[in-house]
Amino acid sequence: MTRPGRTHRLPAAAATPAPATLPPVGLPGLDPAFSRLVEVAESGAAAPATRTWHLLDNAARLAELGVTPVGTVLCVHGNPTWSYLWREFVTKATDAAAAGRPAWRVIAIDQLEMGFSERRGTVRPLARRVTDLGDLTDTLGLAGPVVTFGHDWGGVVSLGWAVDHPELLGAVMLLNTAVHQPEDSPIPAPLRLALAGPVLAAATVTTPAFLETTLALAHPRLSAAVKRAYRAPYRAAARRGGIGAFVADIPVDFAHESAAELDRIAGSLRDLLVPALMLWGPRDPIFSDRYLDDLVGRLPHADVHRFEAAGHLVAEDVDYAAAALTWLGECAPVVEPAATEAEAASETWPAPVVEPAATEAEADWVAGPHHPLWHYLDELRDSDETALVDMSPPGGRAPRVVSWRMLARQVRRLAAGLDLIGVRRGDRVSLLVPPGADLTAVLYACLRIGAVVVVADAGLGLRGLTRAVRGAHPDHVIGATPGLVAARALGWPGQKISVARLPKPVHRALDVSFTLAELLSLGMAEGLPASPAPGDRAAVLFTSGSTGPAKGVVYTHAQLAAVAHALHAQYGVGLGTGLVAGFAPFALLGPALGARSVTPDMDVTSPKTLTATAVAAAVAAIDATVVFLSPAALANVVATEAALTPADHRALAGVRSFLSAGAPVAEPLLAGAARLMPRASAHTPYGMTEGLLMTDITLEGIRDAAPTSLADLAGPGGVCVGCPAATTRIRISALDADGAATGELSDAPGVTGEIVVSAPHTLDHYSRLWLTDRAARRGAVAGERWHRSGDVGHFDSAGRLWIEGRLPHVIATATGVLTPVGPEQRIEGVAEIARAAVVGVGPAGTQQPIAVVETLPSGRRVALATPGLAAAVREAAGLQLAAVLVVPRLPTDIRHNSKIDRSRLSRWAETVLSGGRMSRP
Amino acid sequence: MTAPAGAGPTRVGPAARTATLHPHGEPPLLTVLVTGASGFLGRAVAARIVAAGHEVYTFQRRASGVPGVIDRLGSVEDPAAVARAIDGIDAVVHLAAKVSLAGEAADFEAVNVGGTRTLLAAAADAGACRFVYVSSPSVAHAGASIVGQDALPADPDRARGDYARTKARAELIALAADSPRLRVVAVRPHLVWGPGDTQLVARIVDRARSGRLPLLGHGAALIDSTYVDNAASAIAAALEHADGVHGRAYVVTNGEPRPVAELLAGICAAAGVPAPAWRVPAALARGAGSLIEAAWQVRPGADEPPMTRFLAEQLSTAHWFDQRRTRADLDWVPEVTLDEGFRRLAASYR
């Protein structure tokens, strides 16, 4: 209970009393009409006492509007903010009600001793604050459903209220917060510093340091006016006692008086079955991702969205208010469910749940029993046939040949070993292992026990990789030494398991718990846990991020098995096929297909080092008939053709199909590769991390699709990627005048729009990106699973799909939308042009198209094109280009060096063409 | 003053000014007064309105030289002359203005603000039903780049220079005079050019010929311009549609922004003179512009200053506009493309 005496750690000023007041008028974004003061009788007090609260409340406004709330959202700020934090949410909720959408009453409180609520100078431990909030809601007489919404330590208080009021509780929403300090990790450094004896008083009360530090955490920076508004209730030391007391109330150890209450709340969360939403800013030095992990562990059904660029003040960094209202509209229970459900149905799309009906070709597979990924490992466990060949195993010895018997045993023993050291079904295991026999064995062992593998592309770079691994919050990391070094240096979470045996000091230094060899001997008895179910999560794959921030793509076992099946159906890869695995995502599926696979000798972090000789050697090693290569590797393979011996040529002549996936491959390059494998059909499929095989086209197909007439050239153009793969359906969602993909799904030819895909082998969902998931499923056929690819294209009359660019790169002019790829290809036909990008400048709907080009030879500085070149480019493009700019180099993604960053170019061009500095893009 | 007798299209008399339709449902034929018709754009506008079948009178100090019109000479600063000129008129298209980049502030005020006020009052007294005020995008321009914006309200307090400031005030006065009886539209053509232009084109060509035309900055700022025939057809369209769009302001351009260097080069090439080859940093030009402007106040010369801050800004920042509302409301599209305009300009120099 309140203990006026316990202020010894804080200066006397902290105990200065002051009555509650209304905030000053004119604070940006805060409507004074929402402010009110409420007197509340304090429960459990020795003598009758009242406390006056300041709060924001839109109830009066809703009454003026004549609308009945569907429920109440109770917003609780943290330290050292105040209800001002929630201004946007109060306003947006009220605006939504005024616009006829479901009306939410929003109450945002100033905690006692904080904001503009009453100051008594008393210390209010966590338990008291939870009771205080209950006293307030009793006084207000709130009826259900109530949705709590908390930030920072206000998150804990709001959850305390939530667990104490199950009869009223409808849902919980959280911004960055924490309910539990893991025993094995120290509390965040900034707080440790603030808690250090004398520092506490100085940092929190005597000076505004703690307040200023918090306000500096916004990304982008807060405006001076907004900072002033946050400071308004904390202008002098006498007003900041609550800030100091709040910090002092952080339970640093079990002996702390609030530790028990925190434990009670944290422990009770597992019983909360109401819908939950967490909106998180990972760039938070205090409530980092590990606290999110902890919360997700307690509320596993929660919807989570991590805003990659946001931090602690996520409410200032992103449009959290719109996100919360969207979620409330879909997920929260409301009063009068019958009426609002019908309304919700008209506004939102039902969540897709099933795949479209199977085509005839896949009927046998789909109708049959679930084919687990380890099906052939079980079936061929006694076979001495070759399963894997590693042409360059770690250590640089001779090729390593692994039989099915050996592989199956390794997988079983590793699986049993992992199980014994506590790797559980649903645990996330980050794999930092280069492709080869070790990765294959570890991967299938994890899948077998139901652990979720996290695979991030090395092409992300260390920074992207770190964000990806942290975002995926692995419970365990299995790594080769470089991966473990990075994990150690960058503080990646999780128990560390080393692929290699390490000298003792290194072992310790890298914080390694086990090695694979130890797991193999631990698992000697091959005691396996129950297999995971088809609907269980199997993998999180991180995209390269070449088209935006890295996103974790989650697949279930059934969906990964469907990827294998799609390869089988499209390319005939199956039991006994010899497969050269030069492209990791497909290569790893060799054992799932029953195929014999070989990893060629190459530096996996630099695929362009692969030589023709290495490919030929790999083909010869297992009599391969199918070759998978990455597009980046292809150029060097073709370039090193001269080194091939007659024997190499003979081996390559045995290849029946050859496939290059990952990025579009130009016809000359594919033709060059096809010459090396004269009896193979050359394929280049179209796909994405979210759906690895969507369409397929052969070299002949590419040649057939080449424009043959001027009429072809005048159309939208693009890159032809062929027809949908065997188990895939593709539709187009047409673009509107502003370039938004708002059209119904359609397969009508000649219509440009967003490419929307559906297949048994597309992703299940994005990891912790609730809003992204929702956007990707928008407009799906009811009851079906569709995914919006973000690519733009059209079907031709022959049913072939053409890619015209990315959705954000669509140019919305006053006379219609334009897509970049077609005109770029036409401009690249001009003799002087090496590479071109067509982007829009100006506001959507009235954008002007412009071209940015690299010339031959390349220009040394950025300049306007000469009149002659500009005329030639305009003529070729067939567009009224407002400007033609010449640059030494177009900005491209790191990974493929082929995807031009058109969004960046567009921003750059807008500056230059407004009279800004002519910098490099 | 009497109307030409006999021949010509059916007149809509002052008694029935808007109601009478042409027998075939075409728009009514009007008696129109075009002010400033001896100017470059005014001539084109008067000719265009004549071609549409309306009866056209003009009002300015000099003969207009436009075939098919009747000149009523006088100054907008002379209320009596204005009253005489407006007798029997259904609609006014008001272009007369002091356009220069330099001069006494009081002169701009008298012509641009006073003249417009006088004309509006006279039009209302005479029972005219339509009034097209020809304005300039500079009335809403404070010096920053304009990138695909639609017309913003005129803002005399932020407009740069006496010309823009007085045009802004006059536009506000004109639109405030809009009523169900006198329907006022403001049209703001941006950078009008074409054969016979003694303002923009002639100055560019003269300076380029004598090697005095610099490029400001890198010359990549996107500038939209208006070929004279397009400006004229847009103003004529505003006259036709005034009953539906009155009270509003419309920016008019070709809708083909180009880097300022390309525009200048196109004009120079058409005139057969070398394109600007030397550059002046834009910031320097803006600074120099205000210095020269200040000096000019002290020692005014016969011509206008070689560079003003306003002009420097115009030529080194982007100016292009959202034309969707203009085109939809006025049911108008530019007929002459930029390239065709350059061809016609070149033909005029041969």
Automatic annotation (TrEMBL), chain A:
Q: Where is the AMP-dependent synthetase/ligase domain?
A: 383-766
Q: Which UniProt keywords apply?
A: Hydrolase, Ligase
The segment(s) forming the AB hydrolase-1 domain are 72-315
From start to end residue, where is composition biased (Low complexity)? 10-19
Molecular-function annotations in GO: hydrolase activity; medium-chain fatty acid-CoA ligase activity
GO BP annotations of the record are: fatty acid metabolic process
- InterPro entries in the record, alphabetically? AB_hydrolase_1 (IPR000073), AB_hydrolase_fold (IPR029058), AMP-binding_CS (IPR020845), AMP-dep_synth/lig_dom (IPR000873), ANL_N_sf (IPR042099)
| Protein's UniProt keywords contain Ligase | yes
Region of interest (Disordered), ranges: 1-21
| Highest taxon, organism lineage | Bacteria
State the family it belongs to: Belongs to the ATP-dependent AMP-binding enzyme family.
Query: What is the protein name stated in its UniProt record?
Result: Alpha/beta fold hydrolase
Source organism per UniProt = Cryobacterium algoritolerans
